[in-house]
């Protein structure tokens, strides 16, 4: 390591070793909203990598353009075209579906109250 470098990088997880296609590992298709989940949108499914459970991979046969997990609860948000849907993975239920007037992108919301 070079002297004076304030950050040391170390690979702790390789998504390709978890069978996430290289074409899905890029901005807009793979998200890491917290230290709990990595979510990857693949051509015919969404892969959820649980970082708190030895990188256990769960694959759901869902078509989506983007996906993100809630950082504090097991809620998955999906976007496809102008439709946004939210699912509670613990109860395996759809919480909400909404059609927006114009295309949108996922961003970060406010942090949960402490």
CATH class of one domain: Mainly Beta
Which radius of gyration do the C-alpha atoms yield? 16 Å
In terms of quaternary structure, the protein is single chain
Strand order of the largest sheet: 1-2-3-4
How would you sum up the global shape?
Answer: globular
Number of strands: 8
Q: What is the second-level CATH architecture of one domain?
A: Beta Barrel
**Uncertain stretches of 5 or more adjacent residues:** none
Average pLDDT taken over every residue: 86
User: N- to C-terminal separation?
Assistant: 38 Å
Strand content: 35-45%
SSE series: EEEEEEEE
Topology:
Elements: E1 30-31, E2 37-41, E3 46-50, E4 56-60, E5 66-69, E6 75-80, E7 83-88, E8 93-99
Antiparallel strand pairs: 1-2, 2-3, 3-4, 5-6, 6-7, 7-8
């Amino acid at each position: 390591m070079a002297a004076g470098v304030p950050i040391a990088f170390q690979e702790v997880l390789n998504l390709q070793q978890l069978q996430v296609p290289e074409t899905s590992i890029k901005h807009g298709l793979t998200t890491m909203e917290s230290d709990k989940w990595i979510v990857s949108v693949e051509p015919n499914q969404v892969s959820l990598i649980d970082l708190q459970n030895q990188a256990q991979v769960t694959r759901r046969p869902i078509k989506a353009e983007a996906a993100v997990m809630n950082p504090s609860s097991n809620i998955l948000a999906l976007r496809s075209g102008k439709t946004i849907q939210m699912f509670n993975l613990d109860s395996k239920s759809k919480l909400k579906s909404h059609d927006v007037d114009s295309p949108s992108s996922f961003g970060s919301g406010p942090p949960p109250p402490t």
